[in-house]
Amino acid sequence: MTLARAVLVVALLAALTLALPGAGDGTPPKGLRSGTRVGLVFDVGGRGDKSFNDAAYLGVERAQRELGVELVVLEPAGSEDREAALRLFAARGFDLVIGVGFIFSTDVNEVARDFPAVKFACVDYAPPSPEIPNNVVGLGFREEEGSFLVGAVAGIVSKSKHVSFVGGMDIPLIHRFEAGYRRGVMEVCPSCEVHVGYAGTTPEAFRDPAKGKAIGISQIREGADVLFHASGTTGHGVFEAARDMGAWAIGVDSDQHDEMPGTVLTSMIKRVDVAVFETIRAVGEGRFRAGLTSFGVSEDGVGYVSEGPHAEGVPAAVRERVAELRGKLMSRAIVVPRTLHPSQ
Questions:
Q1: Which pTM value belongs to this model?
Q2: What's the pLDDT tens digit per position in 64-75?
Q3: Which position among 106, 174, 211, 318 has the lowest Cβ density within 10 Å, counted as fewest Cβ atoms?
């Protein structure tokens, strides 16, 4: 890392430490260790993406509010800054350091081995090797189950029998969204066609709204009238394409209704906030356990917006049908594939 970048990150950390003090009067709830400090490093797209990163921030914000933990967040500019931010938190003796996104997996492992007394969590952890450090917990989700549910919504709602999926980076993680979505569409509309497009093969594919809009326009011209994206801020462009051309869009990770009211039909929900909050609480209460975790429909870790004004575009009959399918997921009567190809 260059000296200039090191100075920049240190300065940012100092500023954020002052900006985000602990909540309340500093007295932690009963059972929570006093002075628990948490550092969070955002994924590509950063805070304000109305999606993945914001969901993680809700979790740490809740922990700050309800548990009284001390919180600092950083948004790196690139790969060097990601590792530097993790190391800064660890070197300062933070109790828990969280990396938001699979791209942190290798960095988290390397830094965790250098700081065995510090605990680490990685959202969407994709370990580069089977050996996981004993101070790392990987927070994983069964995205295919939530995507299955919105796929069913899309398949029923579609009038053209053409729906689409827009992925960000072309990687196995996003393939899980596509695989679940395809399975959900086919469950309710075997004759439907699913059009698919990916924005790229690098992390930049998660923050390219122009590319998302171009893909969305192309898919709508091919007949798609419901578009589901799993592409970070690239999805903002998908929403614009749907709005401009009179199609429905489905959001991802968080409730994205307010991004484009009247265009966002519903959103697939990935409860990153719950996973992050529970991990922080476990650290504060001395219950941290390393290894891999998995949150799906049964754990209320994934789902979709099915109630309230943000779901009013989804007819009651559709919600009832999808509720039946959700029950089958929970009973394992339906098992959604996690991959598009057996080799993945």
A1: 0.81
A2: 999 999 989 988
A3: 106
